[in-house]
Amino acid sequence: MFVLLSHKLSTMTPAYAGGPSLALRPLKQIAKGDSSNSYIIEMPNHLGTHVDAPRHFDPSGRSISDYGIESLTFKRPLLLSIQKNDSELITAEELKAYEDKISGADMLLIKTGFQRFRSSDPERYSLHNPGLSSDAAKFLVKTFPKLRALGLDTISLSSADHREDGRVSHRILLSGRDFFIVEDMDLSMLTDSPKLVIVVPLFIEGVDSAPCTVLAEV
């Protein structure tokens, strides 16, 4: 059985730090006499559930369209529940408690519980999200060479209230290596680690990263 770990996109999708969201503009409308319905879709490439590729913070890194689906398939995903409140950062000390479990994983999914505010309080979700500390990022890179991806149920790995530290965390994880960060995930369906996770991005040439559909086998 597969479950969806990505949110549906809409004009109400919250954007990081209150940035621009999705806009829809009708191109053709049957109601106006056209032969079909179609739309022009305008949105930032880091809106909704999306995957950061190395080029996002490393000018020499690969863009998302440079990867095949085999690089975005994870056969040893691990789910951790590390509950966080507004603007709190996941620390290296918290991750060290799960060192044995993380050592065998190729994808780490962190369920902070902050996802509960995505619909009920999107401004809070957008402006005061938890994040991953730079010390935690250093710990992951140094300790777990088999780890290839990190996914979170927060709008970004970078807390909007700790942006500079979040930028450092991104650089540590993405620079000089093939690594992926999946942000704004829907982890509400998971109570345990899935058997398999597949990340399917929009393979758009010329951009660093892209919105994605994430499937998990449970």
TrEMBL record:
<dbReference type="InterPro" id="IPR007325">
    <property type="entry name" value="KFase/CYL"/>
</dbReference>
<dbReference type="Pfam" id="PF04199">
    <property type="entry name" value="Cyclase"/>
</dbReference>
<dbReference type="GO" id="GO:0004061">
    <property type="term" value="F:arylformamidase activity"/>
</dbReference>
<dbReference type="GO" id="GO:0019441">
    <property type="term" value="P:L-tryptophan catabolic process to kynurenine"/>
</dbReference>
<protein>
    <recommendedName>
        <fullName>Cyclase family protein</fullName>
    </recommendedName>
</protein>
<dbReference type="InterPro" id="IPR037175">
    <property type="entry name" value="KFase_sf"/>
</dbReference>
